[in-house]
Amino acid sequence: MITKILVANRGEIAVRIVRACSEMGIKSVAIYTDADRHALHVKKADEAYHIGSEPVTGYLNAHNIVNIAVTSGCDALHPGYGFLAENPELAEICARRDIKFIGPNADVIRQMGDKVQARNAMIAAGIPCVPGSDGNLADVEEARILANKIGYPVMLKATNGGGGRGIRRCDSDKDLISNYARVISEASKAFGQPEVFLEKCVVDPRHIEVQVLGDSHGNVIHLFERDCSIQRRNQKLIEIAPSPQITQAQREYIGSLAVKASRAVGYENAGTVEFLLDQDNNFYFMEMNTRIQVEHTVTETITGIDIVQEQIRIADGLKLQYQQEDVRFRGYAMEFRINAEDPKNGFLPSFGKITRYYAPGGPGVRIDAAMYSGYEIPPYFDSMCAKLTVWALTWDGVVERGRRALNDMLIYGVKTTIPYYQEILKHPDFRNANFNTGFVESHPELIDYTIRIPPELRAAAISAVIAAHEGI
């Protein structure tokens, strides 16, 4: 049985894993660079080991991380998300060193990480896929010929991409030619591989993904879907479970597709099968993420299933505790990614010291965070500093609870995306569950959330503010 786990990550997901370990009676080991010396995951874990002065590279050194796992007496390693979470080499090193990797095996990670291999595997399994290239593109001319055959707009995508990077929409030959070299450059820099492929662009789709769990005994189930359509530049902002935009028949269909896709590749552990839903209600496979997702909290909230603990049990060789008919959901959950960014300044990162932090509470409110009053957000990592998850029995109820919880959540010292989310929740389209991946771009007015004062009242308002300050 697993008794000690090295958490090969940082931030809120590292804290989340440490908490799961604590509830299961498992010892946890944290790692940190100089930038994270005072991080919450370091304080919460049973043990913590320094992995270097450089902020990021220590989290990317697979051999060193596994060495720490071995020397500290760990029998398992949890990669979290990001960094090395979908790196097959880490899984292979763990296997060689007799450390249980809490995730799928290296072959599945490698296959699903290669978007062309993943696409071909899904086509072979009978999973609907967006029309596109059969493999990697040889050159821009091949891309141009195929684009004209299937029709613009098209998407150029990095074969080994992820996290919304290495993707460009092309609406014409001119766009395609100018973006081709850019995508290759982005793919080479971000993922170390220059390969790209092409797909038909599904215009303004809804982004629907399904959480799956598979064990080593041949059991695979789904935990229903999440709606991740509210996003900016392919980066998710708000996630919802279940989707308020699909029918029960569609829910059953997409769940069965996700299980079928997982079985086709022999998937074990927690994973997510992502789909696009077009304007004609056709589902298309997009990709499979072979790790825990940022937005797993909404699925946990509606089903009551602790996905991280299930990951650990599966890695330990245990059977799933649930069969498909045992899994039920209740109500709606919504997660807000609280990013240290300034929406009024192009979502520019806003790193610095959190002078004061007040977490929201009350019924149906969950916070996953790695920050605290006095914590200084380092400028070297992703800007997400917390996740706020709310639950209610109805769609209207979860929207209102989200609005209230966002109002209650106070963060001083840095700019955050909280005011932006407050504006989204007021919008009639969102409140009526009528949105797609183009929502943010089609509503630029939401960025300006300043109070509008009529010109005839502005002078009086300014005078009143000056008088108030003079009277303090």
Rg over alpha carbons: 23 Å
Helix content: 25-40%
Mean pLDDT: 93
Give me the secondary-structure category. alpha+beta
Spatial ordering of strands, largest sheet: 13-12-9-10-11-14-21-19
Assign the CATH superfamily of the largest domain. ATP-grasp fold, B domain
**CATH architecture tag of the largest domain:** 2-Layer Sandwich
Question: Topology, pairings included?
Answer:
Layout: E1 4-7, H1 11-23, E2 27-32, H2 40-44, E3 47-50, H3 62-71, E4 76-78, H4 88-96, E5 100-101, H5 106-113, H6 115-124, H7 140-150, E6 154-158, E7 167-170, H8 173-191, E8 196-200, E9 206-214, E10 220-232, E11 235-241, H9 248-264, E12 269-277, E13 283-289, H10 296-303, H11 307-315, E14 332-339, E15 341-342, E16 348-349, E17 352-353, E18 356-358, E19 365-369, E20 376-377, E21 384-392, H12 395-408, E22 410-412, H13 418-426, H14 428-431, H15 439-442, H16 455-470
Parallel strand pairs: 1-2, 1-4, 2-3, 4-5
Antiparallel strand pairs: 6-7, 6-8, 9-10, 9-12, 10-11, 11-14, 12-13, 14-21, 15-16, 17-20, 18-22, 19-21
Helix pairs in contact: 4-5, 7-8, 12-13
What does it look like?
The structure is a single chain. By secondary structure, the protein is of the alpha+beta class. It has 3 domains: 4-102, Rossmann fold; 131-200, ATP-grasp fold, A domain (Dna Ligase, domain 1, 2-Layer Sandwich), CATH 3.30.1490; 206-447, ATP-grasp fold, B domain (D-amino Acid Aminotransferase, Chain A, domain 1), CATH 3.30.470. 35% of the residues lie in helices and 24% in strands. It contains 16 helices and 22 strands. The protein has helices spanning 11-23, 40-44, 62-71, 88-96, 106-113, 115-124, 140-150, 173-191, 248-264, 296-303, 307-315, 395-408, 418-426, 428-431, 439-442, 455-470; strands spanning 4-7, 27-32, 47-50, 76-78, 100-101, 154-158, 167-170, 196-200, 206-214, 220-232, 235-241, 269-277, 283-289, 332-339, 341-342, 348-349, 352-353, 356-358, 365-369, 376-377, 384-392, 410-412. Strands 13-12-9-10-11-14-21-19 form an 8-stranded antiparallel beta sheet, sandwiched between helices. It has a 5-stranded parallel beta sheet with strand order 3-2-1-4-5, sandwiched between helices. Helix 4 (88-96) links the parallel strand 4 (76-78) and strand 5 (100-101). Helix 4 (88-96) packs antiparallel against helix 5 and helix 7 crosses helix 8 (173-191). It is globular and about 60 Å long.
